[in-house]
Write a structure and sequence with these properties.
The protein is an alpha+beta fold. The protein has four helices and five strands, in the order βααβββαβα.
């Protein structure tokens, strides 16, 4: 299905963008893919400034039918094996009422175009293994599981909270 959304790069100085970012990220967090709990109010309050302070942030918003419909948050990093920048997709959400309209694919395409414009050599992301719709969307967009040598297996994503 063709996306019927307008995709724009996030402008953290634009109050409409900040409100959309907060609302969409909180919707994502409240769903099963995001842990099922609202984001703390103080984290939502600090988020725009934290992103603005990071010189590595790159984000895109989708608007459809006059409303925020989707969000992709990414962060620039470096591929040490290629000595080039990369863009990691940290969050992607399409609001429930706008799903199955191609908005996720449009956000991924915008991130790819943004990454290419920044001289990146690749996009990376992680996904929960039980999130079959997201995995299908990522495969459709050309993503594949990461491995260097099949004998060593696929990469796993770990975290250590503090």
């Amino acid at each position: 299905m063709q996306a019927d959304a307008r995709i724009v790069e996030v402008d953290l100085d634009n109050p409409m963008h900040v409100a959309a970012l907060r609302a969409l990220l909180d919707e994502y967090a409240r769903g099963p893919e995001g842990g099922g709990a609202a984001l703390p109010a103080d984290a939502l309050a600090r988020l725009p400034q934290a992103l603005a302070d990071s010189r590595c942030y790159a984000g895109w918003l989708a608007f459809a039918d006059g409303a925020p419909a989707g969000l992709l948050n990414g962060f620039l990093g470096v591929s040490t094996f290629r000595a080039m920048p990369l863009l990691n997709v940290h969050d992607i959400v399409v609001s429930a009422r706008f799903r199955r309209r191609g908005i996720g694919q449009a956000l991924l395409a915008a991130a790819e175009a943004g990454a290419r414009a920044r001289g990146c050599c690749k996009l990376t992301l992680e996904v929960l293994e039980g999130n079959a719709p997201a995995i299908a969307a990522y495969r459709k967009a050309g993503f594949a599981p990461y491995e260097l040598d099949p004998a060593m297996g696929r990469a796993l994503f770990f975290e250590k909270k503090f």
